[in-house]
Amino acid sequence: MRIRLELLYTELLKCHTDYNQLSAETDQYFKTLRDALPDQLQHTVFLYEDAQISLQSILERSIYI
Q: 1 exposed, middle or buried (CB, 10 Å; 0-12, 13-18, 19+)?
């Protein structure tokens, strides 16, 4: 399942310029927000990213099935 999803993402990155642009923009926006936060909130941002990745993993698995 993971291999299939990785292949789909690879194909998406090669063929879908809008996806690439939006992905780069969101990465930059998130980096800007993270850099602007005080040190005491950096760990909270890390936890947020970790939770988002876990949610995405569950969603991808469900979509694949």
A: exposed
Q: Which residues of 26-64 are buried (b: 16+ CB within 10 A; e: fewer)?
A: eeeeeeeeeeeeeeeeeeeeeeeeeeeeeeeeeebeeee
Tens digit of each residue's pLDDT (9 = 90 or more) over 20-64: 899 899 999 999 999 999 999 999 999 999 999 999 888 877 776
Token output for 15: 């063929």
User: pTM, whole model, 2 decimals?
Assistant: 0.62
For CA atoms 34, 46, 44, 21, the dihedral sign is positive
